[in-house]
Specification:
Elements lengths: L4 H9 L4 H10 L6 H9 L6 H11 L3 H5 L8
Amino acid sequence: MKKIINLRRLRNERRISQEKLCAELQRRGCDIGRTTYEKYESGELNIRVSVLIELKKIYGCAYDDFFAGLDTKEE
């Protein structure tokens, strides 16, 4: 499974730790812990749509930012 590096990149660009991001997601009604979020970033788990919607609001980005480069074939 290809890593979802865009999740990590977006978080790092905003200088938010996984812990703070998860706390904000929980405040917004997404029951998610840091370990689960880490698995989203590493590609071990597929991200839930509800989490993606809240991340879009937190980051103020387009949905395309999450998926940029993911439709290319790996060599």
